[in-house]
Design brief:
By secondary structure, this protein is mainly alpha-helical. It folds into three domains: about 70 residues, Endolytic murein transglycosylase (Dna Ligase, domain 1); about 60 residues, no CATH class; about 150 residues, no CATH class. It has 14 helices and six strands. The chain has a two-stranded antiparallel ribbon with strand order 1-2. Strands 3-4 form a two-stranded antiparallel sheet. A hairpin with a 7-residue loop joins β5 and β6. It is elongated. The N and C termini lie far apart (about 125 Å).
């Protein structure tokens, strides 16, 4: 009888221990499953979109990042994200930038991207600007940089000189094109990159062509800026450039109307009148021989190449054709030019364009 009781007790102990172990294992499995699900289950939902972006400004705190993510609506469970972020040390490793989110991304991958600062670059395009303020706004609309900081650099004596320019020529450093930047690039980073791109643009071949013409890089850009304003027709730019090269070689004033508009600070003027030609400005190419102190805009690559590969001819004058075509009538003599100019003036009068 004592033996049977001992056996029964032993069985009960084994059962109790087994059940306890099973419960421990089950609890551990459940806990492991919860951890796994918080880390590896999809937590980014973008609806019909394959990807989206979040922007974390420079100087953001962890709390600010959480607010940005919550407001985006892209993360399904903000609590599970915060749990994963805390365990992966992200609250102490916040990095600013533009981050691409893919539909179905889990917390581990999302936190890893943010913690490592794995940004997706921004394709930044700037073309067709005349003033530093316009450039600054174009750039600030695409990356985080402060537009005021960019614009103010052009009125600063020190910053342009750091890159080998002055206030009048600094605009030549910014070759219009499309570039990739990280969204959180600051003004200095932007300027440094543009200087590198400027040096890359001026290849040995381009340098040699400029030397053959007798112009420095900046003077090529200055002349190209005038060509850019004179004609919207890319297939005419080399011929227009040739006219100005001829005038420079002969010491004839350029008499470029766009430089008058620049000196007046008004590019909306459609008709340059005699009274406009008296403005006292180093940019007045009717009054002063040679090129103005610097570019009057940021010339396109097309216009720079037009100067470097100018058309060789004997034209000294050109005037807009009276047909709204955008093309010009070219002349070798003043009498020819005056005839073309009179036709164009009659056209302007007929169209009631007086200023």
């Amino acid at each position: 009888m004592h033996i049977n009781m001992g056996k029964n007790l032993g069985k009960r102990i084994v059962i109790i221990v087994s059940l306890s172990l099973a419960l421990v294992i089950a609890a551990g499995g459940f806990y492991s499953y919860k951890i796994y699900s918080k880390m590896f289950f999809p937590n980014v939902s973008l609806g019909d979109k394959e990807h989206a972006y979040i922007y974390i400004p420079t100087g953001s705190t962890y709390a600010a990042v959480i607010s940005i993510i919550e407001e985006s609506g892209y993360v399904t469970s903000i609590e599970s994200f915060k749990w994963a972020a805390s365990r992966m040390g992200y609250p102490y490793s916040v990095k600013s930038g533009r981050y691409k989110l893919a539909n179905g991304t889990n917390n581990k991958d999302l936190v890893s991207i943010l913690r490592a600062g794995l940004q997706t670059p921004v394709r930044v395009t700037f073309t067709g600007f005349r003033t530093p303020q316009q450039l600054a706004q174009l750039i600030a609309n695409q990356i985080e940089v402060d537009s005021t900081e960019i614009a103010n650099a052009f009125t600063d004596n020190e910053i342009p000189s750091q890159y080998g320019f002055n206030q009048q020529t600094f605009i030549a450093m910014f070759i219009p094109n499309t570039y990739e930047f990280f969204w959180n690039t600051n003004a200095k980073g932007f300027f440094d990159r543009m200087k590198r791109e400027y040096e890359n643009f001026w290849t040995d071949e381009k340098e040699q062509k400029a030397q053959d013409i007798g112009l420095s890089r900046v003077k090529v850009s200055t002349l190209a800026s005038i060509v850019e304003e004179e004609t919207i027709k890319a297939d005419e730019r080399q011929r227009v450039a040739g006219v100005y090269i001829n005038r420079l070689k002969r010491g004839i004033p350029l008499q470029a109307d766009p430089t008058i508009k620049y000196a007046m600070g008004n590019f909306t003027i459609r008709r340059i009148l005699t009274k406009h030609l008296s403005i006292d400005s180093p940019y007045n190419t009717y009054k002063y021989r040679g090129l103005p102190p610097g570019p009057i805009n940021s010339p396109s690559i097309s216009s720079i190449n037009a100067v470097l590969n100018y058309e060789s001819h004997k034209y000294l004058y050109f005037c807009a054709k009276p047909d709204y075509s955008g093309y010009h009538a070219f002349a070798k003599t003043l009498s020819e030019h005056n005839k073309n100019a009179r036709e164009y003036q009659r056209f302007l009068n007929k169209e009631r364009i007086y200023r």
